[in-house]
Amino acid sequence: MYKHQCCRYPIKIEHEGNESTMNKGWLTRKNQIILSYSEVALAIIGGVLPLLFIPQLPHITNNIAVIIMLFMIVLFIRGNKFIRLCVVVVISFSWGCWHGEDIRRKIESLSGTSHLLQITIVSIPVNTSEKKFTVSIDKIEGKRVFPPLYATWKWKGNSSISVCAGQRWLINGKLNPLHSSLNEGGFNQQRYLLSQRIIGSLKGQQLELVNPQCSLRQNVINHFSDKLHFLANAGIIYALMFGERGLLTEGHSQLLQNTGLTHLIAISGLHIGIAYLIGYRFIWLAQYFFPAKWINENIPMISGLLFAFLYAWISDFAIPATRAFLALLLWAYIRQQPFYCFPWQWALWSVAFILLIDPLAILSDSFWLSSFAVLAILYWIKIFPLSDNIRYRPFIGKIAPLLHLQVGLLILLIPIQVLLFGGINLMSLFANLWFVPIVTWIVVPTIFSLFLLPINYWQELAFQLIDEVLVFSLRPLIFLEGYWLEINSISWYVIFLFWGLLFAILFHWHKNYIGLLSCIVALLFTNKTASKHESHDWCLTLLDVGHGLAVVIRQGELAILYDTGNRWQGGSNGKRQIIPYVKYHQITPVGIILSHNHLDHTGGVDDLTQQYPWVNIRSSFGENQHLPCYQGQSWKWGKLKFDVLWPEKLSIESHNNDSCVIQLDDGYQRILLTGDIEKEGEKALVAQYQHQLASDILLAPHHGSNTSSTALLLRTVKPRIALVSSARYSPWKIPSDKVYFRYTNDNIKWLNTAEVGQITICFKKEKMEILRYRQEIHPRWYHLWFGDRPFP
């Protein structure tokens, strides 16, 4: 027979004789090498990891997937250890690609024509008057959907009908595929939506209410919602109870992010662990009152799992909570097995288990953050264990482990925090030391008591207690918020390099291969530095801001902005796209030019001037403290000359035809920036300047609308490239098909931000390099255009 030692539990055991030997951790029998779970876990992770980087998915249909699977099984059975590891990698990669390709195919089928869909309302927003729900797509034309897919659905039905989560509807719907603005430094919403399996927004008429009943979770939310609205910290309590951040104020969100406490305000790994501990301890203590024959060591663990499941359920099985619960289930399973498992092996298996169930979790920032946090804890405890002399002291022994752990997390998670949040708070150590124990031992247990003791008097008292505790605990955080340190940019290569060096220390590779490791570090740093400072005279970037306009003209470390995009309630393109881009490239804005006074061109100026109060603003509408921008003005900035061609005079009303039109000239190339100028303005420009308008690049006037881009203007300017700033789902249906064909018929290269994302053109004398976000800057399969193409 054979023994199970230290997690070396084999996947395949061939009973050939009675001898078994343990050779470097492999269980072997007559030279038949058998894989350990840890090796398989690494192979699974290695197989799914390329989904982060590959530019295109291989077209793996169901039939091809079955063929690959059968072929790999044959190789696995007959191959050696290396072949078997390769088989697991290929199967994992194919499994991940199949998930991505399945989503792509379903998006294409749903976006072309209307389909009969059965949907279930999953969640309803709590802080908006707009009835826009998240729904799961259960059936397409009567066929059940697997794996599950989600979408948003805007209710346009009878306002007298009560709509709630859990209801099932039959609709005749068409999909607007997922799509988002893509810019360097900005939030990658398209990748986030795919990681959540949200494939877009549904448009269609509801036909029949299949099941009018609200879900039990929705009834629980309705029961508590009325009691929450009167509390000062209703948003935080709501987030901790149900995993929904809809009631969080912008002030609370900013405070928690700047103090490194965002991880607490969502039901995730920490909260699932607390729920397990509450359930475990509750039954463990209760067993003191049981007869001896009823006492069983597994009952507290089952109770803990039930409490954890309840908390995951109340969060509507949010992705982070579900991942944490799966890892907890795996840990409970391991405890019942006849072998010992090291913590790092459990962490490795958990990551592989999650990716096996949902390969698209690899696209999620929260997945990486939680995975790195667990690895950081295990690494820190292994390399820098807390001394027993400190651990067992009467008072210090209670505080020292938490302090020791927080110091390790602060140091080891710096790279990924910079990548995800754009900076770190050096005081987050003290913020976590203060806030985490309060949430862990007071707030969350009290929240659980609300669910377990449905007594109105107690619930009102408990809500008041939680609110007062939060008011008290949030006050010191205001003083710690000011220590937020912005770090402009960091890439994934730095994170992998950082953690690679840490593992080199863990396995003592630095002692034997110090020279090799030093060369790798130097080589990577040199390559990064070289790519970061490529030799260009200057660059022009048209940011992807939807229906709006934002152009960044940069020379060296300085930049001038032409328009600042749109603004909406709670945000702007200035805050969401322009400032992150500027920080990513570590450049400083010195001026802003506003073409005209329309919201989709001036919307981000307030956020930009708040962030960069020294910038000069130039406009055509005579605003106080603005420099003028009208015909005849000219200035030099570095290697660039700015000539203002239009308007003839300042205009307070500032219509489209009053746009500030500027021609840039570096002595080799000319670029014409046109704002929203229309046919009348174009005609006047041509009449005054004629062939002086000739330019290599033309910013298509008015977002490619049919009100502009006349054949006269194109014949006069004779551009090689047209830049278009537009939204994919523009309510005005622009750019116009007629305008698109007008450009392409003249052999003018058409570059539209809605299609290619951010567009950057860099110049070096007569040379020009065009970089599109979806094609050259970050070519990834999850950045591609999904669904049909209703416009150019």
Automatic annotation (TrEMBL):
It comes from the Bacteria. GO terms for cellular component: plasma membrane. Pfam families: Competence (PF03772), DUF4131 (PF13567), Lactamase_B (PF00753). GO terms for biological process: establishment of competence for transformation. The chain crosses the membrane at residues 34-54, 60-77, 264-290, 310-334, 346-362, 368-386, 407-427, 433-453, 490-509. CDD domains: ComA-like_MBL-fold. InterPro entries: ComA-like_MBL, ComEC_N, Competence_ComEC/Rec2, Competence_DNA_uptake, DUF4131, Metallo-B-lactamas, RibonucZ/Hydroxyglut_hydro. Residues 547-728 form the Metallo-beta-lactamase domain. It is found in: Cell membrane. It is a multi-pass membrane protein. Keywords: Cell membrane, Membrane, Transmembrane, Transmembrane helix. This is DNA internalization competence protein ComEC/Rec2-like protein.
